[in-house]
Amino acid sequence: MSQLKGKTALVTGSTSGIGLAIAIGLAKQGANIMVNGFGEKDAAIAAIKACGVEVDYHGADMSKPVEIEDLIAQTEKRFGSLDILINNAGIQHTASVEDFPADKWESIIAINLSSAFYTSHHALPGMKRRNWGRIINIASVHGLVGSIQKSAYVAAKHGIVGLTKVTALENAKTGITCNAICPGWVLTPLVQKQVDARAEREGISNEAAKDALVSEKQPSGSFVSPEQLAALAVFLCGPDASEVRGAAWNMDGGWTAQ
Ligand code: NAD
Q: Does residue 86 lie within any of the structural domains?
């Protein structure tokens, strides 16, 4: 399979979890990959390289607009173009609105929302020149519905769904599409922290905490896998998805159907 051969994809936050799975999924279709994130980058790079594509790494902090500008410039310089932009980097913090630390609010809005504006802002001119591009914003079910204790995350994810619609509309007559993917629970390091906190708070095992977490929101009772999300991203990058524009596509075990 090589439907993305010759394209370059930047996946923010691709050193673990959903971002790494999407990077591997795109690489399996032949796309060269710019990796970003603070996790185990050598392992991530090796896993993507094993797909037979060119890989590079940029350590931009997605909360810093100047570093984001450099990330886009370096990607275009290294590979000659930036065709597929996956805005995936994200963090979480849970607390009620009155207890929410202001610095955590600012970081979540910066990393989970504003970074997608800055990457798109700098990547769109090149995509327009080539009249082809795919921007996929990894939102969440929390871009569609709320949950207690997650004010900053829910605000950022609702915001990124809005940004997705505007970016899609502004480019609707071009070969550039912009869509959001809205996953339910996926067992990644970001969610494992919430499982650990629940196990400790309720004095239950890791397995019991996982079951409790997933079954209270997700009717299927099963986690979504990073590979399933990668397959959706690959579809959205392909020719059959050229008229999918401005969608907020949930893959959530039924969470938002309730
Ligand atoms: P993860 O913790 O495995 O991955 C997050 C990635 O972002 C890592 O590579 C991390 O190093 C990177 N990152 C964090 N802060 C960064 C920064 N300042 N600059 C650059 N990179 C940074 O988590 P994940 O679950 O794979 O999350 C990926 C995305 O999916 C996030 O946007 C998250 O909100 C979203 N999401 C996750 C779930 C879930 O259940 N896991 C559900 C819905 C949406």
A: yes
pLDDT at residue 190, as a whole number: 84
CATH number of 55's domain = 3.40.50.720
End-to-end Cα, the chain, rounded Å: 37
Please give the share of the chain, as a percent, with pLDDT higher than 70: 100
Same domain, 110 and 230: yes
> How many CB atoms are closer than 10 A to CB 192?
14
Instruction: Tell how far the Cα of 142 is from the centroid of ligand 1, in angstroms.
Output: 14
State pLDDT tens for residues 191-222.
999 899 999 999 999 999 999 999 999 999 99
Pocket of ligand 1 (CB under 6 A): 13, 15-19, 36-39, 61-63, 88-91, 111-112, 138, 140, 183, 185-186, 188-191
Active-site residue list? 153
Instruction: Give the closest residue to 237 by CA, choosing from 177, 170, 163.
Output: 177
> What's the pTM value of the predicted model, to 2 decimals?
0.98
Total domains in the chain come to 2
Report d(CA 50, CA 54) in Å as an integer: 10
Q: Is residue 256 part of a domain?
A: no
Its domain, for residue 114, covers: 8-184+225-251
Could you give the residue ranges of the DSSP H alpha helices within 93-188?
Answer: 102-109, 115-130, 151-170
**Domain-embedded: residue 107:** yes
Q: Note the pLDDT tens digit of each residue in 100-156.
A: 999 999 999 999 999 999 999 999 999 999 999 999 999 999 999 999 999 999 999
| Pair 12, 123 in one domain | yes
Are residues 178 and 191 part of one domain? no
How many Å lie between the centroid of ligand 1 and the Cα of residue 129?
30
